[in-house]
Structure formats: C-alpha cells, structure tokens
Design a protein that fits this description.
Chains A, B: Pfam families: PadR. The structure is a homodimer of 111-residue chains. The first copy, chain A, has 5 helices and 3 strands; from the N terminus they run ααβααββα. Chain A is of the alpha+beta class and 111 residues long. The first copy, chain A, has a 3-stranded antiparallel β-sheet with strand order 1-3-2. Chains A and B meet through helix 1, helix 2 and helix 5 of A and helix 1, helix 2 and helix 5 of B.
DNA sequence: GCAAGGTACCTTGCGCGGCAAGGTACCTGG
DNA sequence: CCAGGTACCTTGCCGCGCAAGGTACCTTGC
C-alpha cells in the first residue's frame, strides 16, 4: 500500500457506507463491481468489508437488492437506493461538508 | 446535538488524534483546554475520549508532557509536539487531503 | 468554616465497523 | 479437465470513540 495505511483505515469508518450509497445514485450496481471501484479510489482495503456492509444497508432498508444472471460467470446481486437511502445520503453530505470543513480549518491553522 | 450524530461519531475516528497534534502546533496546551476547543468544533463528544488518546500519543512519543501549576485550580498536564509528532502530522495532512478529495469527488458524482 | 460548583485529571465497559483470512460455487479458456 | 477469474459470503480480531463514573483541587458564597 502507498502511505498512511493505518490512518486511512480509521478514516474510512462511516464514510465507506455512504460512498456506496453515492455510487448507487447513478443506477444499480453489484457488489464485486463496487469492490473494484472503491478499492481503486483507496476507500476500501478488503472485499470482506463490503459484503457485511451491504447486508447492513439492506437490513436498514437503505438499499434493496435483486439477483440477476450474469452474461458470463456466477449470478450477481444488484443493489439500488431506496427513498430512505437517498435521504440518508443527502443528510450525510451535509454532515461530511461540515465535518471536513472543520478538519481542514484545524489542520491549516498555523501550518 | 444538531444532526448526523451517529455519522459524526464515526467520522471522528482517526481524525481526532491528528487534530490534537494540529492544535499543539502553535504551542503547548493542556487536556481540559483541548477538550473545550475540540468540543466546540464538533470534533469531540466526551471528555472520556481525549485522555486515553493523549496517553496513546505519549506512549507513541508523538507528544511529551509536563505538569505545571495553575494560577487557580488543580495542576495541569501540558502537552507539546515532538519531532515524530510533527512528522506524523505532516504525513496525515497528505493522507487527509487525498482521502477527503476522493470522498468529495464520489459524493458529488451525479449529485 | 463548610458546602457547592467549576476546574482538571483519569478509568472502565461497551459497541461498531473495517481488516485479514478463509470458504463456496459458477463459468470460461487453455 | 483443471486453473484461474468472477462473484458471493462468514468468522475472529482490534482499535477508537462514547457514556458513565470517579478523584482531587481550589474558589465562592452563605
């Protein structure tokens, strides 16, 4: 891995969940697909993280899922946002903006 | 509290530690003082979080501490950055910028 | 002179979420 | 036919923030 390993791991907490919701905004996606995108963005370190997360999102009814056959390979479970999911995402965007603002300010204060 | 309670709590993970380091940049501070500043900024919910954190920072030699008497009230433990602390802070600034950038981008993608 | 309340430190028990490792099954390509 | 990519999932662990609770100092007011 690049830099800031341990630090990154902590940063992802709580963010990853909402990043998944954000990715679902533009249409339904399946897990393995999300894994590669989030890993690429440096927001996910292990597959083993995402599937339990998706289960939680289903349990909390922020997403709903449907099995579809793949043109090649095993079947995929596709996820889509529910209304609650969209609401949660909007709410998080505010929290994030505010939070990130505070942190930026604090980190620069006398840099 | 305002909004996004639970979300906020998760967001603070790993950030708080480095915010403390950032606050020490401009000179030594004592715990109770940090508590009020960080609480004010919405980055800390409970006193009980900070003291163990400060112990960790001491253990990892990112800060050093010295007891000083207070003009009024019980003695205070003042904390100051070590060289390692300054380095950790610099390193975190990069991680944070990169991380926050990724998140911002992802959250806006099709907002 | 003593109780009340602010200052200042610390500890304990808990829960949650990300990580690593491991496991199953499907399907294609050599 | 089997090696390897696709795609799903589970289990055990660890670290950090939180809430609640605890000690002691010092001032203020009655």
């Amino acid at each position: 891995m690049t830099t800031g390993d341990a630090a990154r791991t902590q940063l992802r907490r709580g963010v990853l969940e909402h990043c998944v919701l954000a990715l679902l905004q533009s249409g339904e996606r399946y897990g393995y697909d999300l894994v590669s995108e989030l890993s690429g963005a440096g927001l996910l370190a292990s597959e083993g993280t995402l599937y339990p997360l998706l289960s939680r999102l289903r349990r909390d009814e922020l997403v709903e899922s449907a099995w579809r056959e793949s043109p090649s390979g095993p079947p995929r479970r596709y996820y889509a946002l529910t209304d609650s999911g969209r609401a949660a995402l909007d709410s998080f965007r505010h929290s994030w903006a505010q939070f990130a603002g505070s942190v930026d300010q604090l980190l620069q204060k006398g840099a």
